[in-house]
Amino acid sequence: MRAVSLLPGATEMVFFAGAGEALVGVTHECDHPPEVRSLPRLTSSGIDHRSMTSAEVDAAVRSVTDGASLYSLDASLLRRLEPDLVITQGLCEVCAVSPGVVEAAISALPRRPAVLSLNPSSLEEVLSDAVRVGEALGRGREARERVAGLRERLRRVARATAGLPRPRVACLEWLDPPFSAGHWVPEMVELAGGEPLLAAPGEPSRRLGWEEVVGGAPEAVVLMPCGFGVGRTLREAGLLARVPGWEGTPAVREGRVWAVDANAYFSRPGPRLVRGVELLAALLHPEAPVSPPGPEEARPLPRELLVAR
Question: Are 178 and 298 in the same domain?
Fold first, then answer.
């Protein structure tokens, strides 16, 4: 079996199932586990988000015309790799190569590979997809056993937070402009013992106005810009102090605003979302017996980023 993954979360699922040796090609964004970094890269992006502000990234994404893709796929490399299986997605064209580009490249191959498309909108669907990936690679038993372990970790979080107050939690997937964190994130908040604001479980992310964020009177705010780590989020968070009414929200008054590693634990539909639930539970309920976050997983925003000077 020779597999290529066109989705970072799927790459993690392949290794999670114990089938990493089957991978022969991945995306330019695949970075976990570390051994994946030596594999051929099938994709590239015309947007260098590392050198752009959030507002510039948003403008660049919106400038892409309908039907176009933010990403390029190396069709000649795909041909040379001769995959038996291509794992892709149709959920978000901002997150991965668009289905039309993938289909065009596959149709040109001398031998058509099997295609497994992952399109989860809930945590349960993500866990089910992990099993589907394992089964497609002949590792279904291993995947089911490991998913059972993930489910037990979620049950432990539920037991740890049972009966505790449920704060209103605003999760932001982008800061300039603000976007709600949808799909599986509201479900993660509920599992962690919070009440999600701005989005309901399964709903897609959407653009917000800051007045909606402030008007929801969040008791906790979790900043999780798509694809960003803690450090990058902290660098972007200075704009918050200029938001009208921001200082008056319960979350700011009580110092309950955090930056998290969205790239690892929230943005990608993969096994590490379970750690994301544990992180949320530890942030929302520090008194609960849940493994606390490390500094590269989550950090509170310092006061100077919360209040205008």
Answer: yes
